[in-house]
Structures are given as C-alpha cells and as structure tokens.
Amino acid sequence: MNLPEFPQGTNVVGVGIDQIEVSRIRQSIDRHGENFLAKVFTKKEQAFCMERTDSAPCLAARFAAKEAMSKALGTGIGKEFGWLDMEVGKKKSGQPVAKFSEHGKSALAQREASSALISISHLNEIASAVVVLIK
Description:
Blueprint: E1 12-21, H1 22-40, H2 43-50, H3 55-73, E2 86-90, E3 96-100, H4 102-110, E4 115-122, E5 126-134
Antiparallel strand pairs: 1-5, 2-3, 4-5
C-alpha cells in the first residue's frame, strides 16, 4: 500500500476514515454472539455499549474507529494491528479517546506517531469515525 506524502514539518502522519451500516454489526452479533464481541471489542467497550437500550450503534461506531485507525496506520486489520490493539474510551468531557495495547503502541511507533485524535458518530443506521495520527 502506498501511503500519501505529508509535507515536511507537519505533525500529521496519518489520516483514516470509515463508515459502517449498524445493521452489519447487529447481524454479526446475532450470528456469532459472544465470539464476535470478544474478537473485536475489549471488555470495557462491550460493557459501555451494552448499557444502552440498543448497543449496536455504539458498537458500530467503535468498529468504524478501529477500521479508521488501521487505515491511518496503513496496515489494515491483521497481524500488524488487530481489533483489540485499540480501545475507544471516553474523557470526562465525553470526547472519545484511543487507548492502545502494547502491540498497538508499537504500530503507532512504526508510523512515527505519538498520539491519535479520533472522532466517532452514529445515527440509527450508519456509524462513522475519523482518525488523525500526530507526531
């Protein structure tokens, strides 16, 4: 995969975006249940989303964030960066925050990124996320 060139001196070293239909997440939960949830989401993400009346939009937004992160890293989801290498948390202000496993931190370092800014959003049927990697 050829990554885009960023101008010299910039602090941005990667950008990723993703959208997913909430129905796809709902179908995966219906078909694969706990196996799907454990493969893609951390226990904290699951607990946070399961508190909602409809957990699927919340989970879909986190799924999109992980996909967007893999695009910003230029790795896709796989050996270099897996589903559980990032957790979407929340600051007291409500702002989403990316938390990384040791393997996830290594993927950031490979891209020469020191942090990631994320934004997530969802409607009833579509969830979206944007990630900006900062040096």
